From TrEMBL:
It is an enzyme of class 1 (oxidoreductase). The lineage of its organism: Bacteria, Pseudomonadati, Pseudomonadota, Acidithiobacillia, Acidithiobacillales. SUPFAM superfamilies: Fe,Mn superoxide dismutase (SOD), C-terminal domain (SSF54719), Fe,Mn superoxide dismutase (SOD), N-terminal domain (SSF46609). It holds the Pfam family Sod_Fe_C. It comes from Acidithiobacillus marinus. Its EC number is 1.15.1.1. GO terms for molecular function: metal ion binding; superoxide dismutase activity. This is superoxide dismutase.
Length: 205
């Protein structure tokens, strides 16, 4: 299989209230997930070729696969979604959908922030269920516990402490979430929504 590469074109800079130092630090962690996903793939193939699939080490690496892969993929959605100065009006379809479902975009966002403030490390993700047309906000523990199979991620919020430690320290999750809201690239969120609604796969890069 082909190797994954670090998608430099997704790296944001010049955000409104989130420093480049914070992004650079976080980017280094994302790079690690790309490298580990590649390394794990290689290691699993080697172990299978050597007839070691019944070993405890193989079982452990298999479990680790979901952690590293989701760590890589979720960061790619997350970084691509950060851009300052984009109005929610750039996401008319998404805005109408959350207004219909939650009463207002503010009510949807309040629910997302409530999910994002769940105790523990992980992600808050607004998912689109292509079967029912419903948008649900979910909390994901670590990178891999809580993602819903087949649902399309629309809005992805990293709430690991590393996402805000540089700018706000450990207690700064609320300040970070407020800053992140000012840097939502609503255009890409609309593109994800429209793709999901029409049953298409939205490509991360
Ligand atoms: Fe992260």
């Amino acid at each position: 299989m082909s190797e994954y590469t670090v998608r430099e074109e997704l790296k944001p800079s010049g955000l409104d209230g989130i420093s480049d130092a914070q992004i650079n630090d976080h980017w280094g962690l994302y790079t690690g997930y790309v490298n580990q996903s590649n390394a794990l793939h290689k290691e699993l193939e080697e172990m299978r070729a050597a007839g070691k699939t019944a070993s405890l080490t193989y079982a452990d690496r298999r479990r680790r696969f979901g952690f590293e892969y989701n760590g890589m993929v979720l960061h790619e959605y997350y970084f691509a979604q950060m851009k300052p100065g984009v109005s929610l009006d750039q996401a008319p379809g998404f805005k109408a959908a959350v207004t219909e479902q939650f009463g207002s975009p503010e009510a949807w966002h309040e629910d997302l922030v409530a999910a994002a403030k769940s105790r523990g490390i992980g992600w808050a993700i607004a998912y689109y269920d292509g079967t029912t047309g419903q948008i649900n906000n979910h909390f994901i523990q670590f990178h891999e516990n809580g993602n819903v199979g087949g649902f399309a991620p629309l809005v992805i919020v990293d709430v690991w402490e590393h996402a805000y430690m540089v700018d706000w320290k450990a207690m700064g999750r609320g300040d970070y979430l407020a800053a992140l809201h000012k840097n939502m690239n609503w255009s890409i969120i609309e593109a994800r929504f429209q793709a999901a609604k029409s049953g298409q796969i939205f490509k991360r890069f």
